[in-house]
Amino acid sequence: MSEDDRPRRPAPKRPERPRKPFPGRGGRPGVPPDRRGGPRSGPDAGPRGGPDDPIVLYGWHPVSQALANEHRALHRLLATENGAARLAEELGTLRIAPELVRPRDIDRLLGPDAVHQGLYLEVDPLPAPDLDALPEDALLVALDQLTDPHNVGAIVRTAAAFGVTAIVTTARHSPAATGVLAKSASGGLEHVPMVVVRNLAEALISLGERGFTRIGLDSEAPETLAAVGPRRPAVLVLGAEGKGLRERTRSCCDVLARIPFSGAIRSLNVSNAAAIALYALSPGEA
């Protein structure tokens, strides 16, 4: 009898390892977050159906700033043990009890590339002021179809640093204030409201009628930002990467201004350009 003809013993079955229950609310056993109605994948995943749908924040600055903002309505907080301990140490008693999870559980919601630092928060959008209710000395930033959430988030962070009153953006052709945008804003969403309008040109016309100086940033403009100088009320209008300001938007500006470059490269990323422009338009810093 050859070796191949000999009867073989069945391989012994390996004992199944018991699965640990996923911690639910208050540490009780539950199911993973992606089976309880939360966003399912990607750092920008989250409800996008309307302006009143919950949005997702993750990472230390966005989450801690939102928890400290009493005007922000909170729905659900997931945190690792380290994340929850850091929140308690920095903020004391939290307005919402965290659900203790493992880092990979948050990874499942956001994707492995999201730097969540063990914190994930679902919140309501902040209330936004009406254009007509903005103060007479307001400084605004208007975004003309900027679609990159990293750039928009960086602009929000810069706007918070320079005391911008609000950011005006459109319902279409703009990223939602969630996920990557919120992470890039590094907590700035809690300090600079986003005013969403249907038509940017009409909004600029309305602001002009109220006495706002509408300053369009254009690399080919004859005027420099230094020549324009600080003005209030004013709105800085920024165009999309590559395309710049649309013709209709340009026609609604009172003045077009450029950043005077002296080096070989004559353009900047729009978020960097926004920072320089806001610095130039700040009182005493032109």
TrEMBL record:
The keyword tRNA processing does not apply. The keyword Transferase applies. Residues 1-19 have a biased composition (Basic and acidic residues). Residues 56-129 form the RNA 2-O ribose methyltransferase substrate binding domain. It comes from the Bacteria. Keywords: Methyltransferase, Transferase. Residues 1-57 are annotated as: Disordered. This is 23S rRNA (Guanosine-2'-O-)-methyltransferase RlmB. The gene is rlmB_1.
